[in-house]
Amino acid sequence: MSFGLSQDDELKVILNKSLEHCIEKIVTIAVAPNNLQKVRELTTVHDMIYGTQGIHPHEAKEITEETLQEIRQHINDDKIVAVGEIGLDYYYGKSPREVQIEMFEKQLQIAVDNNKPVVIHTRDADDDTIAVLKNFSSTLKNKGVIHSFTSSLELSKFCLAEGFHLGFNGIITFKNAENVREVLRECPIERILVETDAPFLTPVPYRGKENAPFYLPFVAEKIAQEKNLDLQEVLKITKENALNLFFKD
Ligand SMILES: [Zn+2]
After folding, report:
1. How far apart are CA 197 and CA 213, in angstroms?
2. Which ranges in 162-215 belong to alpha helices (H)?
3. How close is the Cα of 17 to the center of ligand 1, in Å?
4. CATH of domain 7-246
5. Phi/psi at 200 (5° precision)
6. Whole-model pTM?
7. CA of 119 to the centre of ligand 1 (A)
8. How many CB atoms lie within 10 A of CB 174?
9. How far is the CA of 85 from the centre of ligand 1 (A)?
10. Residue 142, CB-side half-sphere exposure with 13 Å CA sphere
């Protein structure tokens, strides 16, 4: 965002504007060894911000034993609600596949050991995602969400059968995303989470601008339209879904 303010003040503007749009809780996602601490700080400074601890597959090769130890050490902190985002990304392939798989498994094990849900990123890696998750399906009690779901209908069916939620964002409003809308239409509303993936993937009609939580109603509106549901119903149910996944004791 650029309101000509300091980063801190800018964040306050975004949070206030989000509150005005009835967004009460925000889960901000850790992705790299050097932002684990930043996420924790944000959760302690701002009432409405919650966080995750985990490393994105792009950064898998940067993970050391100390990184994993830091995640383990803080995964039960107040307001840390999940392990993530973790997973496999063979589209960009920024870390070697075998390293991505190893680190995905190690972080899934942290979720198992601490009874936490996971936030999973998967792109162009359907077969290995299924292979890895199959090994954890009986021990991972709290499951989680496949965020920014853009994979195949087949993978969506596997994930739903295993008890995961699917996360949808501004992509579903993009003209060329018919494959994602197909998955959305097949996904029960009780398993849908609405997400930003900020700063990217801002929904139409604000596509191209930096994303923020107060744009979420445009995503919910598209879900309502695609699934022939009432907007208020979509907002209510997807909120309950998020509360059940991340905020139940
Ligand atoms: Zn992601």
Report:
1. 9
2. 178-186
3. 24
4. 3.20.20.140
5. -95, 175
6. 0.96
7. 9
8. 15
9. 7
10. 25
> What are phi and psi for residue 187, nearest 5 degrees?
-85, 125
State the first-to-last Cα distance of the chain, in angstroms, to the nearest integer. Answer: 34
- What is the three-state SS of 119-173? EEEEECCHHHHHHHHHHHCCCCCCCEEECCCCCCHHHHHHHHHCCCEEEECHHHH
Burial of 147 (0-12, 13-18, 19+ CB in 10 A): buried
Name the region of 93 (left: φ>0; alpha: ψ -120 to 50; beta: rest): left
| Ligand 1 centroid distance, CA of 164 (Å) | 16
HSE toward the beta carbon, residue 90, CA cutoff 13 A: 10
Q: How many whole angstroms separate alpha carbon 214 and alpha carbon 14?
A: 8
> Do 93 and 63 touch, CB atoms closer than 8 A?
no
- 198's tokens: 């900020």
What does pLDDT average to over the chain? Answer: 96
Instruction: Tell the burial category of 65 from Cβ atoms under 10 Å away from its Cβ (0-12, 13-18, 19+).
Output: exposed
Could you tell me where the DSSP H helices lie in 21-89?
Answer: 36-45, 65-74
Domain residue limits, the chain: 7-246
Question: 148: burial class by Cβ within 10 Å (0-12, 13-18, 19+)?
Answer: buried
State the distance from the centre of ligand 1 to the C-alpha of 86, rounded, in angstroms: 8
pLDDT of 2 strictly over 70: no
pLDDT in tens, 154-199: 999 999 999 999 999 999 999 999 999 999 999 999 999 999 999 9
